Amino acid sequence: MGRSVAYTYRLDVVANVHLDTFGWEVKTHGKPTAENAERYRRTMNAAFQPGGCNFHISEQMGVVPHISKVTITRQRDGKVMAEANAPAFEVV
């Protein structure tokens, strides 16, 4: 069987639809910085658009998810390590 992994950091996502809390993998996404959080936000938004790898989720939901804010938090003490917010007006 597999093993459970407690992530050092968690990623909280605010979007126009319900998305879950994710583990922030440092090996995959890099250190928890504002630049990496913004890169993640933009990449995920692009993935939900037509032609993106997660477009099938948009089709199933009937709406294209748009992530407006991500927060990377250290699990052990709840300290916010980085945030990325969408601008007031963003063309996708």
Strand order across the largest sheet: 2-1-3-4
Name the helicity range. Answer: 25-40%
Name the average pLDDT: 90
| CA-based gyration radius | 14 Å
**Anisotropy-based shape:** globular
Q: Note poorly predicted spans.
A: none
In percent terms, what proportion of residues is strand? 25-35%
Number of strands: 4
Question: How would you characterize this protein structure?
Answer:
With 92 residues, this protein is of the alpha+beta class. It has one domain. The protein contains three helices and four strands; from the N terminus they run E-E-H-H-H-E-E. Strands 2-1-3-4 form a four-stranded antiparallel sheet. Strand 3 and strand 4 form a beta hairpin. The longest helix has 14 residues. The protein is globular and about 35 Å long. The mean pLDDT is 90.
